[in-house]
Amino acid sequence: MTGSIVLLHLAGAVALMLYATRMVRTGVERAYGDALRHRLRATMRNPVMAVIAGTALAIAFQSSTAVTLLVGSFAGSGIVGGMAAQLAVRGAEIGSALVVKILSFNLTLLVPICLAAGTTIFLATERRGWRQFGRILVGIGLLVLSLEMIGKASEPLRDSALLPVIVEYFSGDPVTAYLLAALMTWLFHSSIAAVLLLVALSARGLIPPELGIVMVLGVNLGSSVIAPLLTRASPPGVRVVPIGNLLMRGAGSLVILTLFLSFEPPVAFLGSTVPDQIINAHILFNVIILLAGVPLAVLVYRASERIVAWGTPPEPPEALASVELSALDEAALDTPSLALANATREVVRVCETVEVMLTRIIELYEDADPDRIKALAALDDRVDRKHAAIKLYLAKATIRQMTEDEALRCQELIGACVKLEQVGDIIVRNMLIHVQKKLDNDLQFTEEGWRELLAFHASVLANARLAFNVLISRDPRTARQLVQEKDRLRDFEKEASHSHFLRLREGTAKSVETSSIHLDTIRDLKQINSLLASMVYPVLEEQGLLSDSRLKAIPS
Q1: Residues 188-209, buried b or exposed e (16+ Cβ, 10 A)?
Q2: Sign of the CA dihedral 430, 448, 83, 179?
Q3: Which terminus, N or C, of the chain has the lesser number of Cβ atoms within 10 Å?
Q4: Residue 113: which residues within 8 A CB-CB, separation 6 or more?
Protein backbone atom coordinates (compact mmCIF):
# COMPACT_ATOMS: atom_id res chain seq x y z
CA MET A 1 0.00 0.00 0.00
CA THR A 2 1.45 3.38 -1.05
CA GLY A 3 2.01 6.17 1.43
CA SER A 4 -0.67 8.35 -0.13
CA ILE A 5 -3.28 5.60 0.27
CA VAL A 6 -2.28 5.08 3.91
CA LEU A 7 -2.61 8.80 4.62
CA LEU A 8 -5.97 8.87 2.82
CA HIS A 9 -7.31 6.06 5.01
CA LEU A 10 -5.92 7.75 8.11
CA ALA A 11 -7.48 11.09 7.13
CA GLY A 12 -10.85 9.41 6.60
CA ALA A 13 -10.67 7.71 9.99
CA VAL A 14 -9.77 11.00 11.73
CA ALA A 15 -12.60 12.78 9.89
CA LEU A 16 -15.05 10.13 11.09
CA MET A 17 -13.79 10.55 14.67
CA LEU A 18 -14.31 14.33 14.51
CA TYR A 19 -17.78 13.90 13.02
CA ALA A 20 -18.77 11.28 15.61
CA THR A 21 -17.54 13.46 18.49
CA ARG A 22 -19.58 16.39 17.17
CA MET A 23 -22.58 14.12 16.63
CA VAL A 24 -22.58 13.02 20.27
CA ARG A 25 -22.10 16.57 21.51
CA THR A 26 -24.93 18.07 19.44
CA GLY A 27 -27.23 15.19 20.40
CA VAL A 28 -26.63 15.82 24.10
CA GLU A 29 -27.04 19.59 23.67
CA ARG A 30 -30.34 19.25 21.82
CA ALA A 31 -31.83 16.58 24.07
CA TYR A 32 -30.55 17.56 27.50
CA GLY A 33 -28.81 20.92 27.05
CA ASP A 34 -31.40 23.06 28.82
CA ALA A 35 -31.72 20.69 31.78
CA LEU A 36 -27.92 20.47 32.10
CA ARG A 37 -27.58 24.25 31.98
CA HIS A 38 -30.22 24.55 34.71
CA ARG A 39 -28.40 22.00 36.82
CA LEU A 40 -25.10 23.77 36.27
CA ARG A 41 -26.52 27.11 37.38
CA ALA A 42 -27.94 25.56 40.53
CA THR A 43 -24.73 23.80 41.59
CA MET A 44 -21.96 26.19 40.59
CA ARG A 45 -22.35 28.41 43.63
CA ASN A 46 -20.47 25.74 45.61
CA PRO A 47 -16.76 25.49 44.56
CA VAL A 48 -16.57 21.71 45.00
CA MET A 49 -19.83 21.19 43.15
CA ALA A 50 -18.58 23.54 40.42
CA VAL A 51 -15.66 21.17 39.74
CA ILE A 52 -17.95 18.12 39.78
CA ALA A 53 -20.52 19.81 37.55
CA GLY A 54 -17.84 20.88 35.07
CA THR A 55 -16.47 17.32 34.97
CA ALA A 56 -19.90 15.79 34.40
CA LEU A 57 -20.83 18.26 31.68
CA ALA A 58 -17.55 17.68 29.81
CA ILE A 59 -18.20 13.94 29.84
CA ALA A 60 -21.75 14.50 28.60
CA PHE A 61 -20.81 17.03 25.89
CA GLN A 62 -17.49 15.28 25.09
CA SER A 63 -15.96 18.74 24.92
CA SER A 64 -14.30 20.90 27.53
CA THR A 65 -14.48 23.81 25.09
CA ALA A 66 -18.30 23.63 25.05
CA VAL A 67 -18.34 23.80 28.85
CA THR A 68 -15.88 26.72 28.85
CA LEU A 69 -18.12 28.67 26.47
CA LEU A 70 -21.21 27.85 28.53
CA VAL A 71 -19.63 28.79 31.85
CA GLY A 72 -18.18 31.93 30.28
CA SER A 73 -21.65 33.04 29.21
CA PHE A 74 -22.95 32.44 32.75
CA ALA A 75 -20.11 34.46 34.25
CA GLY A 76 -20.66 37.23 31.70
CA SER A 77 -24.31 37.56 32.67
CA GLY A 78 -23.53 37.52 36.40
CA ILE A 79 -25.25 34.17 37.06
CA VAL A 80 -22.08 32.66 38.60
CA GLY A 81 -19.01 34.16 40.22
CA GLY A 82 -15.51 34.29 38.78
CA MET A 83 -13.94 31.70 41.11
CA ALA A 84 -16.74 29.17 40.60
CA ALA A 85 -16.50 29.66 36.83
CA GLN A 86 -12.75 29.00 36.85
CA LEU A 87 -13.16 25.86 38.94
CA ALA A 88 -15.95 24.55 36.71
CA VAL A 89 -13.64 24.88 33.70
CA ARG A 90 -10.89 23.06 35.60
CA GLY A 91 -13.34 20.24 36.25
CA ALA A 92 -14.32 20.24 32.58
CA GLU A 93 -10.70 19.65 31.55
CA ILE A 94 -10.53 16.61 33.85
CA GLY A 95 -13.85 15.36 32.46
CA SER A 96 -12.48 15.66 28.94
CA ALA A 97 -9.39 13.66 29.94
CA LEU A 98 -11.57 10.97 31.54
CA VAL A 99 -13.49 10.59 28.28
CA VAL A 100 -10.20 9.67 26.60
CA LYS A 101 -9.55 7.10 29.34
CA ILE A 102 -12.99 5.54 28.89
CA LEU A 103 -12.59 5.33 25.12
CA SER A 104 -9.16 3.69 25.48
CA PHE A 105 -10.74 0.46 26.70
CA ASN A 106 -11.75 -2.31 24.31
CA LEU A 107 -15.24 -1.19 23.32
CA THR A 108 -15.49 -3.09 20.03
CA LEU A 109 -18.76 -4.74 21.02
CA LEU A 110 -20.37 -1.32 21.42
CA VAL A 111 -20.09 -0.57 17.69
CA PRO A 112 -22.85 -2.89 16.41
CA ILE A 113 -24.97 -2.42 19.55
CA CYS A 114 -24.89 1.38 19.42
CA LEU A 115 -25.33 1.59 15.66
CA ALA A 116 -28.25 -0.84 15.60
CA ALA A 117 -30.01 0.55 18.68
CA GLY A 118 -29.38 4.17 17.78
CA THR A 119 -30.61 3.82 14.21
CA THR A 120 -33.71 1.92 15.33
CA ILE A 121 -34.61 4.55 17.92
CA PHE A 122 -33.95 7.43 15.51
CA LEU A 123 -36.16 5.97 12.77
CA ALA A 124 -38.90 4.54 14.99
CA THR A 125 -40.16 7.79 16.54
CA GLU A 126 -40.72 11.45 15.77
CA ARG A 127 -40.21 12.55 19.38
CA ARG A 128 -37.25 14.88 19.49
CA GLY A 129 -35.83 13.62 22.79
CA TRP A 130 -35.76 9.99 21.67
CA ARG A 131 -34.41 10.88 18.22
CA GLN A 132 -31.54 12.77 19.82
CA PHE A 133 -30.86 9.82 22.15
CA GLY A 134 -30.65 7.62 19.05
CA ARG A 135 -28.29 10.17 17.53
CA ILE A 136 -26.06 9.97 20.60
CA LEU A 137 -25.88 6.17 20.39
CA VAL A 138 -25.00 6.27 16.70
CA GLY A 139 -22.32 8.88 17.45
CA ILE A 140 -20.78 6.69 20.16
CA GLY A 141 -20.77 3.70 17.81
CA LEU A 142 -19.10 5.72 15.05
CA LEU A 143 -16.56 7.12 17.52
CA VAL A 144 -15.44 3.67 18.64
CA LEU A 145 -15.44 2.51 15.00
CA SER A 146 -13.24 5.46 14.00
CA LEU A 147 -10.66 4.48 16.64
CA GLU A 148 -10.50 0.99 15.15
CA MET A 149 -10.12 2.50 11.69
CA ILE A 150 -7.26 4.74 12.85
CA GLY A 151 -5.47 1.70 14.26
CA LYS A 152 -5.87 -0.30 11.06
CA ALA A 153 -5.01 2.66 8.82
CA SER A 154 -1.80 3.35 10.74
CA GLU A 155 -0.66 -0.31 10.75
CA PRO A 156 1.31 -0.04 7.45
CA LEU A 157 3.25 2.92 8.90
CA ARG A 158 5.20 0.45 11.05
CA ASP A 159 7.13 -0.64 7.96
CA SER A 160 7.70 2.91 6.70
CA ALA A 161 11.32 3.91 6.22
CA LEU A 162 10.44 7.59 6.51
CA LEU A 163 8.49 7.47 9.78
CA PRO A 164 11.45 6.64 12.06
CA VAL A 165 13.28 9.64 10.61
CA ILE A 166 10.30 11.92 11.34
CA VAL A 167 9.86 10.54 14.88
CA GLU A 168 13.56 10.90 15.54
CA TYR A 169 13.48 14.52 14.35
CA PHE A 170 10.54 15.44 16.58
CA SER A 171 12.11 13.57 19.51
CA GLY A 172 15.18 15.77 19.05
CA ASP A 173 13.06 18.92 18.64
CA PRO A 174 10.34 18.65 21.31
CA VAL A 175 9.35 22.32 21.03
CA THR A 176 8.32 21.85 17.40
CA ALA A 177 6.42 18.66 18.34
CA TYR A 178 4.70 20.60 21.15
CA LEU A 179 3.62 23.38 18.78
CA LEU A 180 2.57 20.90 16.09
CA ALA A 181 0.28 19.11 18.57
CA ALA A 182 -1.19 22.48 19.61
CA LEU A 183 -1.88 23.37 15.96
CA MET A 184 -3.41 19.94 15.32
CA THR A 185 -5.75 20.34 18.32
CA TRP A 186 -6.81 23.80 17.19
CA LEU A 187 -7.60 22.43 13.72
CA PHE A 188 -9.58 19.55 15.25
CA HIS A 189 -11.29 21.89 17.75
CA SER A 190 -11.22 18.89 20.09
CA SER A 191 -8.59 17.81 22.62
CA ILE A 192 -10.34 14.45 22.91
CA ALA A 193 -9.87 13.73 19.21
CA ALA A 194 -6.24 14.88 19.30
CA VAL A 195 -5.29 12.72 22.30
CA LEU A 196 -7.16 9.72 20.90
CA LEU A 197 -5.17 10.03 17.68
CA LEU A 198 -1.90 10.07 19.65
CA VAL A 199 -3.05 7.05 21.66
CA ALA A 200 -4.01 5.10 18.52
CA LEU A 201 -0.65 5.82 16.88
CA SER A 202 1.31 5.00 20.04
CA ALA A 203 -0.55 1.68 20.35
CA ARG A 204 1.03 0.72 17.01
CA GLY A 205 4.49 1.65 18.28
CA LEU A 206 4.67 4.77 16.11
CA ILE A 207 5.13 7.30 18.92
CA PRO A 208 7.54 6.81 21.86
CA PRO A 209 6.23 7.73 25.34
CA GLU A 210 8.45 10.81 25.88
CA LEU A 211 7.38 12.32 22.56
CA GLY A 212 3.76 11.39 23.28
CA ILE A 213 3.83 13.25 26.61
CA VAL A 214 5.34 16.33 24.96
CA MET A 215 2.60 16.28 22.34
CA VAL A 216 -0.09 15.82 25.01
CA LEU A 217 1.14 19.04 26.61
CA GLY A 218 0.85 20.66 23.18
CA VAL A 219 -2.70 19.33 22.90
CA ASN A 220 -3.57 21.11 26.14
CA LEU A 221 -2.10 24.35 24.82
CA GLY A 222 -4.08 24.08 21.58
CA SER A 223 -7.28 23.24 23.45
CA SER A 224 -6.92 26.29 25.69
CA VAL A 225 -6.69 28.58 22.63
CA ILE A 226 -9.96 27.43 21.02
CA ALA A 227 -12.46 29.11 23.38
CA PRO A 228 -10.73 32.55 23.41
CA LEU A 229 -10.73 32.56 19.61
CA LEU A 230 -14.40 31.55 19.42
CA THR A 231 -15.42 34.31 21.87
CA ARG A 232 -13.19 37.08 20.51
CA ALA A 233 -16.25 39.03 19.26
CA SER A 234 -18.34 38.40 22.42
CA PRO A 235 -19.00 40.93 25.20
CA PRO A 236 -16.06 41.43 27.59
CA GLY A 237 -17.71 39.58 30.48
CA VAL A 238 -18.06 36.43 28.38
CA ARG A 239 -14.40 36.44 27.32
CA VAL A 240 -12.94 36.53 30.84
CA VAL A 241 -13.34 32.80 31.64
CA PRO A 242 -11.83 31.54 28.33
CA ILE A 243 -8.88 33.91 28.79
CA GLY A 244 -8.44 32.64 32.35
CA ASN A 245 -8.41 29.07 31.05
CA LEU A 246 -5.70 30.05 28.56
CA LEU A 247 -3.62 31.57 31.37
CA MET A 248 -3.91 28.47 33.57
CA ARG A 249 -3.93 25.61 31.10
CA GLY A 250 -1.88 27.14 28.28
CA ALA A 251 0.78 28.66 30.52
CA GLY A 252 0.67 25.55 32.72
CA SER A 253 1.47 23.31 29.75
CA LEU A 254 4.48 25.48 28.94
CA VAL A 255 5.74 25.32 32.55
CA ILE A 256 5.29 21.53 32.74
CA LEU A 257 7.02 21.15 29.35
CA THR A 258 10.01 23.12 30.61
CA LEU A 259 10.22 21.02 33.77
CA PHE A 260 9.81 17.77 31.83
CA LEU A 261 12.58 18.62 29.36
CA SER A 262 14.87 19.93 32.11
CA PHE A 263 14.65 17.01 34.54
CA GLU A 264 13.67 14.19 32.11
CA PRO A 265 11.78 12.16 34.75
CA PRO A 266 11.06 8.47 34.11
CA VAL A 267 7.62 7.84 32.65
CA ALA A 268 7.20 4.20 33.66
CA PHE A 269 5.16 5.19 36.72
CA LEU A 270 2.42 6.49 34.41
CA GLY A 271 1.56 3.03 33.10
CA SER A 272 2.81 -0.25 31.71
CA THR A 273 2.09 0.62 28.06
CA VAL A 274 2.75 3.70 25.97
CA PRO A 275 -0.98 4.46 25.39
CA ASP A 276 -1.60 4.26 29.15
CA GLN A 277 1.35 6.55 29.82
CA ILE A 278 0.03 9.16 27.35
CA ILE A 279 -3.54 9.04 28.71
CA ASN A 280 -2.45 9.12 32.36
CA ALA A 281 -0.07 11.99 31.62
CA HIS A 282 -3.02 13.89 30.14
CA ILE A 283 -5.13 13.23 33.24
CA LEU A 284 -2.26 14.01 35.63
CA PHE A 285 -1.55 17.33 33.92
CA ASN A 286 -5.17 18.48 34.29
CA VAL A 287 -5.27 17.34 37.93
CA ILE A 288 -2.13 19.42 38.61
CA ILE A 289 -3.72 22.44 36.91
CA LEU A 290 -6.86 21.95 39.03
CA LEU A 291 -4.88 21.79 42.28
CA ALA A 292 -2.86 24.83 41.28
CA GLY A 293 -5.99 26.60 40.11
CA VAL A 294 -7.82 26.47 43.44
CA PRO A 295 -5.56 28.97 45.27
CA LEU A 296 -4.97 30.97 42.07
CA ALA A 297 -8.58 31.18 40.87
CA VAL A 298 -9.28 34.72 42.09
CA LEU A 299 -5.88 36.01 40.96
CA VAL A 300 -6.25 34.46 37.49
CA TYR A 301 -9.77 35.84 37.14
CA ARG A 302 -8.60 39.37 37.95
CA ALA A 303 -5.70 39.05 35.52
CA SER A 304 -8.13 37.82 32.85
CA GLU A 305 -10.39 40.82 33.44
CA ARG A 306 -7.44 43.18 32.95
CA ILE A 307 -6.34 41.43 29.75
CA VAL A 308 -9.89 41.61 28.37
CA ALA A 309 -10.14 45.28 29.38
CA TRP A 310 -6.87 46.08 27.54
CA GLY A 311 -8.21 44.51 24.36
CA THR A 312 -11.67 46.09 24.54
CA PRO A 313 -12.22 49.36 22.67
CA PRO A 314 -13.84 52.21 24.62
CA GLU A 315 -17.60 52.36 24.67
CA PRO A 316 -19.12 54.56 21.95
CA PRO A 317 -20.80 57.81 23.00
CA GLU A 318 -24.29 57.24 24.37
CA ALA A 319 -25.88 59.22 21.54
CA LEU A 320 -24.30 56.93 18.94
CA ALA A 321 -24.84 53.70 20.91
CA SER A 322 -28.58 54.35 21.10
CA VAL A 323 -29.03 54.89 17.35
CA GLU A 324 -31.17 52.24 15.64
CA LEU A 325 -30.40 51.82 11.96
CA SER A 326 -33.26 51.14 9.58
CA ALA A 327 -33.31 49.37 6.25
CA LEU A 328 -36.54 51.11 5.22
CA ASP A 329 -35.15 53.38 2.51
CA GLU A 330 -37.89 55.70 1.22
CA ALA A 331 -35.99 56.21 -2.04
CA ALA A 332 -36.47 52.52 -2.90
CA LEU A 333 -40.28 52.67 -2.79
CA ASP A 334 -40.51 53.34 -6.53
CA THR A 335 -38.90 49.93 -7.14
CA PRO A 336 -41.13 47.35 -5.40
CA SER A 337 -38.55 44.57 -5.51
CA LEU A 338 -36.02 46.75 -3.65
CA ALA A 339 -38.66 47.98 -1.23
CA LEU A 340 -39.66 44.39 -0.40
CA ALA A 341 -36.01 43.43 0.07
CA ASN A 342 -35.57 46.36 2.48
CA ALA A 343 -38.72 45.39 4.38
CA THR A 344 -37.50 41.80 4.58
CA ARG A 345 -34.22 42.95 6.12
CA GLU A 346 -36.13 44.95 8.72
CA VAL A 347 -38.47 42.05 9.52
CA VAL A 348 -35.40 39.84 10.02
CA ARG A 349 -34.18 42.33 12.63
CA VAL A 350 -37.53 42.05 14.38
CA CYS A 351 -37.11 38.25 14.29
CA GLU A 352 -33.72 38.60 15.96
CA THR A 353 -35.16 40.80 18.70
CA VAL A 354 -38.04 38.39 19.30
CA GLU A 355 -35.58 35.48 19.47
CA VAL A 356 -33.58 37.34 22.14
CA MET A 357 -36.78 38.00 24.10
CA LEU A 358 -37.85 34.37 23.84
CA THR A 359 -34.40 33.20 24.97
CA ARG A 360 -34.17 35.56 27.93
CA ILE A 361 -37.67 35.08 29.29
CA ILE A 362 -37.01 31.52 30.44
CA GLU A 363 -33.84 32.71 32.20
CA LEU A 364 -35.90 35.23 34.16
CA TYR A 365 -38.15 32.44 35.46
CA GLU A 366 -35.13 31.13 37.34
CA ASP A 367 -33.06 34.21 38.05
CA ALA A 368 -35.12 37.41 37.82
CA ASP A 369 -34.27 40.92 38.93
CA PRO A 370 -35.96 44.28 38.21
CA ASP A 371 -33.21 45.52 35.85
CA ARG A 372 -33.37 42.47 33.59
CA ILE A 373 -37.16 42.57 33.58
CA LYS A 374 -37.03 46.22 32.55
CA ALA A 375 -34.49 45.44 29.81
CA LEU A 376 -36.74 42.74 28.35
CA ALA A 377 -39.72 45.09 28.36
CA ALA A 378 -37.60 47.65 26.48
CA LEU A 379 -37.03 45.07 23.72
CA ASP A 380 -40.80 44.84 23.24
CA ASP A 381 -40.92 48.60 22.78
CA ARG A 382 -38.33 48.22 20.02
CA VAL A 383 -40.44 45.51 18.36
CA ASP A 384 -43.50 47.78 18.50
CA ARG A 385 -41.59 50.66 16.89
CA LYS A 386 -40.22 48.54 14.08
CA HIS A 387 -43.60 46.87 13.57
CA ALA A 388 -45.28 50.25 13.05
CA ALA A 389 -42.51 51.47 10.74
CA ILE A 390 -42.60 48.33 8.58
CA LYS A 391 -46.38 48.45 8.19
CA LEU A 392 -46.26 52.11 7.16
CA TYR A 393 -43.41 51.45 4.72
CA LEU A 394 -45.19 48.52 3.07
CA ALA A 395 -48.42 50.51 2.91
CA LYS A 396 -46.56 53.16 0.92
CA ALA A 397 -45.04 50.47 -1.28
CA THR A 398 -48.45 49.07 -2.23
CA ILE A 399 -49.41 52.40 -3.82
CA ARG A 400 -46.93 51.59 -6.60
CA GLN A 401 -47.64 49.07 -9.33
CA MET A 402 -46.75 45.54 -8.15
CA THR A 403 -46.79 42.11 -9.72
CA GLU A 404 -49.01 39.47 -8.18
CA ASP A 405 -46.02 37.75 -6.57
CA GLU A 406 -44.78 41.04 -5.13
CA ALA A 407 -48.22 41.82 -3.70
CA LEU A 408 -48.37 38.37 -2.08
CA ARG A 409 -44.90 38.82 -0.62
CA CYS A 410 -45.93 42.20 0.75
CA GLN A 411 -48.93 40.65 2.52
CA GLU A 412 -46.74 37.84 3.81
CA LEU A 413 -44.28 40.31 5.37
CA ILE A 414 -47.08 42.35 6.94
CA GLY A 415 -48.63 39.18 8.38
CA ALA A 416 -45.28 38.00 9.75
CA CYS A 417 -44.63 41.39 11.32
CA VAL A 418 -48.05 41.42 13.01
CA LYS A 419 -47.47 37.93 14.44
CA LEU A 420 -44.02 38.88 15.70
CA GLU A 421 -45.50 41.89 17.48
CA GLN A 422 -48.11 39.61 19.07
CA VAL A 423 -45.37 37.22 20.24
CA GLY A 424 -43.58 40.14 21.89
CA ASP A 425 -46.81 41.17 23.63
CA ILE A 426 -47.35 37.64 24.98
CA ILE A 427 -43.82 37.56 26.38
CA VAL A 428 -44.08 40.95 28.07
CA ARG A 429 -47.77 41.18 29.02
CA ASN A 430 -48.24 37.56 30.04
CA MET A 431 -44.99 35.76 30.77
CA LEU A 432 -43.27 38.67 32.50
CA ILE A 433 -46.28 38.86 34.81
CA HIS A 434 -45.71 35.20 35.73
CA VAL A 435 -42.03 35.98 36.36
CA GLN A 436 -42.92 38.90 38.63
CA LYS A 437 -45.46 36.78 40.52
CA LYS A 438 -42.91 34.01 41.05
CA LEU A 439 -40.33 36.57 42.20
CA ASP A 440 -42.69 38.42 44.55
CA ASN A 441 -43.91 35.24 46.23
CA ASP A 442 -40.52 33.46 46.20
CA LEU A 443 -42.02 30.40 44.51
CA GLN A 444 -40.08 27.41 43.19
CA PHE A 445 -41.04 24.83 40.56
CA THR A 446 -40.62 21.13 41.22
CA GLU A 447 -37.63 19.60 39.43
CA GLU A 448 -39.92 17.62 37.12
CA GLY A 449 -42.12 20.63 36.42
CA TRP A 450 -39.12 22.83 35.63
CA ARG A 451 -37.69 20.20 33.28
CA GLU A 452 -41.03 20.14 31.45
CA LEU A 453 -41.04 23.91 31.07
CA LEU A 454 -37.42 23.91 29.86
CA ALA A 455 -38.13 21.19 27.30
CA PHE A 456 -41.31 22.89 26.10
CA HIS A 457 -39.54 26.24 25.81
CA ALA A 458 -36.61 24.64 23.96
CA SER A 459 -39.02 23.17 21.40
CA VAL A 460 -40.75 26.52 20.89
CA LEU A 461 -37.40 28.30 20.51
CA ALA A 462 -36.24 25.72 17.94
CA ASN A 463 -39.51 26.17 16.04
CA ALA A 464 -39.07 29.95 16.15
CA ARG A 465 -35.72 29.61 14.42
CA LEU A 466 -37.29 27.37 11.79
CA ALA A 467 -40.02 29.96 11.17
CA PHE A 468 -37.48 32.77 10.82
CA ASN A 469 -35.48 30.68 8.35
CA VAL A 470 -38.56 29.97 6.25
CA LEU A 471 -39.37 33.68 6.13
CA ILE A 472 -36.10 34.15 4.21
CA SER A 473 -35.62 30.85 2.38
CA ARG A 474 -39.31 30.10 1.72
CA ASP A 475 -38.33 26.42 1.77
CA PRO A 476 -41.49 24.25 1.69
CA ARG A 477 -39.81 21.27 3.37
CA THR A 478 -38.80 23.36 6.37
CA ALA A 479 -42.28 24.91 6.47
CA ARG A 480 -43.87 21.47 6.44
CA GLN A 481 -41.51 20.35 9.23
CA LEU A 482 -42.57 23.33 11.33
CA VAL A 483 -46.27 22.51 10.99
CA GLN A 484 -45.54 18.91 11.95
CA GLU A 485 -43.64 20.18 15.00
CA LYS A 486 -46.73 22.20 15.91
CA ASP A 487 -48.77 19.01 16.04
CA ARG A 488 -46.08 17.28 18.08
CA LEU A 489 -46.01 20.20 20.52
CA ARG A 490 -49.76 19.86 21.01
CA ASP A 491 -49.20 16.28 22.20
CA PHE A 492 -46.31 17.47 24.36
CA GLU A 493 -48.62 20.00 26.02
CA LYS A 494 -51.18 17.31 26.84
CA GLU A 495 -48.49 15.12 28.40
CA ALA A 496 -47.06 18.02 30.43
CA SER A 497 -50.50 19.05 31.68
CA HIS A 498 -51.32 15.45 32.61
CA SER A 499 -48.05 15.10 34.54
CA HIS A 500 -48.69 18.40 36.29
CA PHE A 501 -52.18 17.35 37.42
CA LEU A 502 -50.76 14.05 38.69
CA ARG A 503 -48.33 16.01 40.86
CA LEU A 504 -51.21 18.16 42.08
CA ARG A 505 -53.22 15.07 42.94
CA GLU A 506 -50.26 13.72 44.92
CA GLY A 507 -50.27 16.98 46.88
CA THR A 508 -46.74 18.10 45.99
CA ALA A 509 -46.42 21.46 47.76
CA LYS A 510 -44.35 23.18 45.07
CA SER A 511 -46.77 21.99 42.36
CA VAL A 512 -49.72 23.51 44.21
CA GLU A 513 -47.93 26.82 44.76
CA THR A 514 -46.78 27.20 41.14
CA SER A 515 -49.72 25.51 39.43
CA SER A 516 -51.20 28.58 37.74
CA ILE A 517 -47.79 29.88 36.67
CA HIS A 518 -46.85 26.48 35.22
CA LEU A 519 -50.08 26.01 33.25
CA ASP A 520 -50.25 29.64 32.08
CA THR A 521 -46.66 29.49 30.87
CA ILE A 522 -47.32 26.33 28.87
CA ARG A 523 -50.40 28.00 27.39
CA ASP A 524 -48.46 31.14 26.46
CA LEU A 525 -45.63 29.16 24.87
CA LYS A 526 -48.12 27.12 22.88
CA GLN A 527 -49.80 30.32 21.65
CA ILE A 528 -46.39 31.73 20.65
CA ASN A 529 -45.62 28.53 18.77
CA SER A 530 -48.95 28.71 16.91
CA LEU A 531 -48.28 32.32 15.86
CA LEU A 532 -44.81 31.46 14.63
CA ALA A 533 -46.03 28.37 12.76
CA SER A 534 -48.69 30.43 11.00
CA MET A 535 -45.92 32.63 9.54
CA VAL A 536 -45.05 29.81 7.13
CA TYR A 537 -48.60 29.15 5.93
CA PRO A 538 -48.19 31.37 2.81
CA VAL A 539 -45.32 29.15 1.66
CA LEU A 540 -47.40 26.01 2.12
CA GLU A 541 -50.41 27.57 0.40
CA GLU A 542 -48.26 28.55 -2.55
CA GLN A 543 -47.11 24.93 -2.87
CA GLY A 544 -50.64 23.57 -2.39
CA LEU A 545 -49.61 21.80 0.82
CA LEU A 546 -52.16 23.44 3.12
CA SER A 547 -55.82 22.48 3.21
CA ASP A 548 -58.54 25.09 3.55
CA SER A 549 -59.77 23.59 6.83
CA ARG A 550 -58.45 21.26 9.49
CA LEU A 551 -61.98 19.84 10.00
CA LYS A 552 -62.74 16.43 8.59
CA ALA A 553 -65.70 16.16 6.28
CA ILE A 554 -68.91 15.17 8.11
CA PRO A 555 -70.87 12.43 6.31
CA SER A 556 -74.41 13.44 5.33
Answers
A1: bbbbbbbbbbbbbbbbbebbbb
A2: negative
A3: C
A4: 141
